[in-house]
């Protein structure tokens, strides 16, 4: 079916007049916009969907969201027959999020499902927490994380508070695609909506404090600078810090105003130094010890601390998670809580240092595919048998304990501030604590390369790049021979030395490649599941004996990462 034929299907009474008017205008003018809006269906993937808002099958709008929600409602009735079904819904600060949230609630209530709907913006982890706290059967959050302002998204959570995973995800996808647009029930029943707000914040914040803090040392003497970067955490993080006893908290006031335009930044992504620039400027004025920023839906956090020279330096996700994980396990060990039946969670694209940390403290490091839903699945799979302690992935996400089943900036921020306060009280810094960990376990350092390819041709180009890397793996990277090639789509591990191949069926299939060289360099190649890009995760390693040589060692490792990029023609 051509894009024109697909567009013509939307010129019926099923669709509102404004939608039809836009399509007619495109047809009349021969607009290129129609091609991109209708050439495919916006993918409802294994965690939901994310895309540009607008008219068409490849856009996020009332009808594509309605189709997804109707499919979810149908599946919920199948799974929980003759029961009262409850679904919690939250949304972030993005354009149309509030309206989309109410529209999704209407579809659910039209299907006889009770909805717990947040009155205003709330962070994604609070939604995850609420699903379990309120004994819901599922949850929905409207968010596009740190994507540009024109994007929005839709994520589904199951009754354990984690994002949907097999077999539920595939079954829901099947239901979604079986729904015709004229079958969506949009006429809701407000009597089935329970509105929730500040009272739930208090319960969530108390849980963050209970599960994330270990020792009360120096909390009233730590200078904190915090920014929500126009996102949802203005509702939770300042209150949590105050309730936990952190007295000196300076807020970037201009960025505490929620806005889907994100007016003070080019990208609301705390992974990017520019997003924290205003907070860093404030820290220079207030003599801040730690700077913290969160993304729009409040699940990721970026942290900057004083480096050896006393200047603010942004930590990457692996560095932050290394500090948090090591500290937690050290506290557990000192408290005698490690019995050998505990584990931490990580992902295949995250630093291998977490294997070393786990081994040091006598716990297991379980590793899954990219995305916190797989760490959530670990918790559910081993509940009652093994105790989950904490988990993280390189993309600035971390979770403390299992009270939230998704990455959670609030609990992670409380923990980071405790560590920073403890270090300061002992005449040290969080940065120096990180170096001590590297002296103990080895200096791991990572780099990320994003190759952006937009539109239909971009998607085809990314597909071809993966095919080329799969069929013709590099034989040498940065002067070291490739020793192992792991192909998670084929679920195989190839030893390049003796050419033996083994299976890897403990992790589900995914279009990911990992190369390991003889000197321990790791390169992971993965198309993004939410953005038009292919990602290259590079990890290199060295030894370090003192903090004085840290800067020099990092420079050498940066050079090595550059060499990797050159060798792979990135």
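-> sequence recovered:
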């Amino acid at each position: 079916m051509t894009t024109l034929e697909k567009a013509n299907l939307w010129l019926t009474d099923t669709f509102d007049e404004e939608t039809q008017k836009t399509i007619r205008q495109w047809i009349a003018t021969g607009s290129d916009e129609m091609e991109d809006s209708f050439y495919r269906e916006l993918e409802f993937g294994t965690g939901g969907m994310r895309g540009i808002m607008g008219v068409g099958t490849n856009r996020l709008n009332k009808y594509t969201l309605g189709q997804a929600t109707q499919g979810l409602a149908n599946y919920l009735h199948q799974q929980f027959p003759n029961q009262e079904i409850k679904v919690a819904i939250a949304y972030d600060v993005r354009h149309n999020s509030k309206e989309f949230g109410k529209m999704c609630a209407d579809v659910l209530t039209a299907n006889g499902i009770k909805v717990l709907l947040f009155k205003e913006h709330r962070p994604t982890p609070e939604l995850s927490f609420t699903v379990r706290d309120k004994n819901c059967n599922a949850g929905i959050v409207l968010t596009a994380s740190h994507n540009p302002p024109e994007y929005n998204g839709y994520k589904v959570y199951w009754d354990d508070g984690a994002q949907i995973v097999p077999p539920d995800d595939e079954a829901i996808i099947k239901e979604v695609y079986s729904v015709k647009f004229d079958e969506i029930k949009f006429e809701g029943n407000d009597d089935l909506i329970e509105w929730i707000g500040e009272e739930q914040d208090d319960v969530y914040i108390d849980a963050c404090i209970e599960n994330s803090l270990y020792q009360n040392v120096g909390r009233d003497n730590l200078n904190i600078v915090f920014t929500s970067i126009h996102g949802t955490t203005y509702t939770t993080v300042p209150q949590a810090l105050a309730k936990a006893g952190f007295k000196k908290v300076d807020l970037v006031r201009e960025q505490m105003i929620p806005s889907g335009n994100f007016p003070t930044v080019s990208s609301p992504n705390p992974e990017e130094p520019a997003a924290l620039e205003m907070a860093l400027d404030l820290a220079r004025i207030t003599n801040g010890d730690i700077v913290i920023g969160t993304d729009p839906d409040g699940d990721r956090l970026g942290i900057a601390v004083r480096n050896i020279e006393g200047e603010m330096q942004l930590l990457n996700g692996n560095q932050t998670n290394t500090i948090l994980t090591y500290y937690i396990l050290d506290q557990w060990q000192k408290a005698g809580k490690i019995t050998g039946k505990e584990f931490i969670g990580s992902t295949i694209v995250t630093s291998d240092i977490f294997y070393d940390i786990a081994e040091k403290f006598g716990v297991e490091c379980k590793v899954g595919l990219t995305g916190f839903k797989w760490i959530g699945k670990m918790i559910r799979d081993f509940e009652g048998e093994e105790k989950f302690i904490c988990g993280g992935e390189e993309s600035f996400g971390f979770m403390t304990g299992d009270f939230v089943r998704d990455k959670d900036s609030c609990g992670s921020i409380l923990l980071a501030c405790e560590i920073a306060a403890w270090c300061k009280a002992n005449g040290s810094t969080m940065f120096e604590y990180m170096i001590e960990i590297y002296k103990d376990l080895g200096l791991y350092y990572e780099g990320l390369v994003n190759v952006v390819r937009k539109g239909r041709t971009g998607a085809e180009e990314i597909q071809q790049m993966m095919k080329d890397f799969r069929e013709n793996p590099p034989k040498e990277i940065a002067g070291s021979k490739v020793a192992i090639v792991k192909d998670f789509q084929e679920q195989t591990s190839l030893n390049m030395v003796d050419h033996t191949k083994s299976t890897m069926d403990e992790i589900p299939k995914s279009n990911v490649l990992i190369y390991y060289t003889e000197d321990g360099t790791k390169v992971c190649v993965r198309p993004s599941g939410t953005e038009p890009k292919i990602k290259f995760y590079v990890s290199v390693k060295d030894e370090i004996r003192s903090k004085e040589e840290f800067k020099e060692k990092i420079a050498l490792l940066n050079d090595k990462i550059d060499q990797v990029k050159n060798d792979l023609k990135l």
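The chain has a mean pLDDT of 95.
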